């Protein structure tokens, strides 16, 4: 009896609160469903009926009942993915019908490994988009040339796909953007010279592509930048010394490029930088003797360059060095003894010209 009452109340609540989303949104979602293939989870079994808000991964605006968010993640703790141990697979593509969802602000179809095809060109007509995450798929083609139209976008990740082409020039118009991740794709060409227009960026991750040209000095105008990763490209030229004086930059990865010239002293004397990887470039000259008592590096890797001279004595005054790699250069002389260097192993110093002292062999005579 009580159960029956509950059920009646439940059904009553549903009929009172469930709202139909407009037929055009329903049709768009059905087209999206038809273009994606989920072999094992049954995600799209929930995508039926006229209450789009009840579809797994879909949220509607409570006032207009228009579809506002699509969030389908293939790596998550979500109950939907329990069957497959938290990691799902989907193939297929993102249907251009998505562009009919003109009130969409969030689109995440990420970490499904097999979702392929191109980013629908019309996506840039969804002017309300704030969050786009298509990372961890097999998406090919290029970043849409007019991506810069999405002036509300704060988050754009296309990392870990098969995207090629250049970084579109219009990208610098995304003035709201805080997070830009295009890492691990096949993007080539140069960084836009006016990338510094992206004033609100916190993270700029372009690593593992085929980028060439030099690091535009305008990048140092991005005062909010915390994390810059340009590693594993073919970037050449000098490192702008202003990178070492940026107010909140804490992680700088430039390893595995074709960079040359001296390592700017500002990078070593910086108060804020605490992860620096300059490994596997063509840096030469001496290591600037500019360490100080507030030097704090969680990780500091300058291995596989052409650095010469001795390890600066001021390094002894540093507060902390975590991981350190000075190996495979042309350094020479006594390894400074002192607290920050006490725990380091020989591998941190190997393959230099004539470094000596602990943890390497004693200096002769
Ligand atoms: C990715 O797409 C390519 C074709 O573009 C295909 O050959 C490859 O098998 C796909 N990989 C996965 C993991 O689906
Ligand atoms: C620096 O990057 C290289 C990749 O070339 C990586 O192997 C190394 O572990 C990184 N260094 C540190 C200290 O993380």
UniProtKB/TrEMBL annotation:
| Compartmental location | Cell membrane; Membrane
One Pfam family cited in the UniProt record for this chain: LRR_1
Chief location category: membrane
GO cellular component, as recorded: plasma membrane
For this protein, the record's SUPFAM superfamilies field holds: L domain-like
Q: Where is the Leucine-rich repeat-containing N-terminal plant-type domain?
A: 23-61
Report how it sits in the membrane. Answer: Single-pass membrane protein; Single-pass type I membrane protein
Instruction: Specify the signal sequence span.
Output: 1-20
- Alphabetically list the UniProt keywords: Glycoprotein, Leucine-rich repeat, Membrane, Receptor, Repeat, Signal, Transmembrane, Transmembrane helix
Q: Which InterPro entries match?
A: Leu-rich_rpt, LRR_dom_sf, LRR_N_plant-typ
Q: Which domain of life is it from?
A: Eukaryota
Q: Keyword Glycoprotein: yes or no?
A: yes
Q: What is this protein called?
A: Leucine-rich repeat-containing N-terminal plant-type domain-containing protein
| Organism of this sequence | Daucus carota subsp. sativus
């Amino acid at each position: 009896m009580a159960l029956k009452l509950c059920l009646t109340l439940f059904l009553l609540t549903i009929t009172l609160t469930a709202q139909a989303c407009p037929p055009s949104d329903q049709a768009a979602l059905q087209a999206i469903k038809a273009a994606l293939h989920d072999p094992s989870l049954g995600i799209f079994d929930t995508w039926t009926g006229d209450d789009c808000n009840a579809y797994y991964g879909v949220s509607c605006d409570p006032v207009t009942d228009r579809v506002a968010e699509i969030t389908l993640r293939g790596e998550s703790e979500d109950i939907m993915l329990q069957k497959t141990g938290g990691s799902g697979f989907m193939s297929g593509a993102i249907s251009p019908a998505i562009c009919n969802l003109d009130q969409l602000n969030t689109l995440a179809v990420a970490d499904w490994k097999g979702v392929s095809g191109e980013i629908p060109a019309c996506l840039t007509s969804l002017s309300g988009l704030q969050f786009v995450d298509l990372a961890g798929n097999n998406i090919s083609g290029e970043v849409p040339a007019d991506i810069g139209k999405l002036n509300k976008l704060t988050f754009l990740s296309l990392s870990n796909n098969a995207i090629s082409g250049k970084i579109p020039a219009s990208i610098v118009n995304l003035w709201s953007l805080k997070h830009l991740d295009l890492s691990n794709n096949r993007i080539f060409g140069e960084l836009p010279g006016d990338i510094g227009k992206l004033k609100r960026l916190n993270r700029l991750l372009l690593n593992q592509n085929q980028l060439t040209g030099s690091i535009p000095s305008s990048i140092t105008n991005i005062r909010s930048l915390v994390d810059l990763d340009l590693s594993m490209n073919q970037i050449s030229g000098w490192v702008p010394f202003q990178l070492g004086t940026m107010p909140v930059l804490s992680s700088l990865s430039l390893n595995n490029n074709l960079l040359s010239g001296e390592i700017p002293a500002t990078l070593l004397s910086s108060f804020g930088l605490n992860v620096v990887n300059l490994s596997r470039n063509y840096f030469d000259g001496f290591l600037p003797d500019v360490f100080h008592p507030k030097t704090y590096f969680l990780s500091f890797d300058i291995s596989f360059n052409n650095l010469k001279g001795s390890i600066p004595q001021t390094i002894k005054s540093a507060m902390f060095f975590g991981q350190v790699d000075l190996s495979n250069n042309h350094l020479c002389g006594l390894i400074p003894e002192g607290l920050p260097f006490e725990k380091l192993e020989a591998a941190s110093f190997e393959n230099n010209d004539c470094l000596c002292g602990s943890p390497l062999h004693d200096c002769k005579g």
